Amino acid sequence: MIIYATKNDADLIRTWINDEPHIAWIVKISEQDRICQWKAVDAIDVLEEQIYALWHVKSGALNIPSGDRNIPDEIVADPFAGWFQTMQHSGQTSPWFGGNLPGPYTFSFAEAGQEASGSLARSEFNWLEDRYKSIGKPAHPDAKRWWKKLRRFLDKSSVQVPWTISTNRKRVIMAHVFPEAKLQIETGRHRDLNPRLGRRSDN
After folding, report:
1. CA 163, CA 165: separation in Å to the nearest integer?
2. What predicted TM-score, i.e. pTM, was given to this entire model?
3. What does the pLDDT profile of the chain (203 residues) look like in tens digits?
């Protein structure tokens, strides 16, 4: 779900997610030599320009990928107590969950764009939903319901516009534009078509 939002707009998203009882933000507590300490929290005070993982608590346990298909992943006993994971690259802002499909939701937020001077970045929510149902890894029903609830919130809080002019008339990709972003776009601020941040972290 593509989003255009300023930091003020995005604070509305942050507050709404904070108030959702079964959704936890996964934040980085510390990092040293690519060893990151992660922790699930119910709320955050500030939304940074970065990639966030959002865990639907009722959808089940989180895991630490072993990196070897012959070695089972380690289950995170209590995400709210925190865990450690060695990342392939330093500076990651969300964990890598490997084969824990469909995995947590991903929220990539940025206001400062890169395609033109002073442009507005493209933000987005991503989730794999039932993409891996055919191999026995369906999405949890409660997680699917929340994804629909998130979409309703975005529909209510923003206006939808075509993301770009599409040559495929059967499917027009829409973007959610929040109020302050809409005003700035209407007064000439360029909006980026491509995301500034990667869709997900890797190990």
Report:
1. 7
2. 0.89
3. 999 999 999 999 999 999 999 999 999 999 999 999 999 999 999 999 999 999 999 988 888 887 777 888 888 989 999 999 988 889 999 998 876 667 799 999 999 999 999 999 999 999 987 776 777 677 888 999 999 999 999 999 999 999 886 656 677 889 999 999 999 999 999 999 998 776 444 44
Q: Who's near 64: CB < 8 A, 6+ residues apart?
A: 73, 74, 75, 76, 83, 85, 95
Helix or strand (DSSP H, E) at 143? helix 141-157
Q: Is 30 left (phi over 0), alpha (psi -120 to 50) or beta?
A: beta
Identify each DSSP E strand in the chain by its residue range: 2-4, 23-32, 35-41, 51-56, 63-64, 74-75, 83-86, 105-108, 120-126, 159-162, 174-177, 191-195
Tokens 């089972």 found at:
72
How many separate helices (H) and strands (E) can be counted in the chain?
3, 12
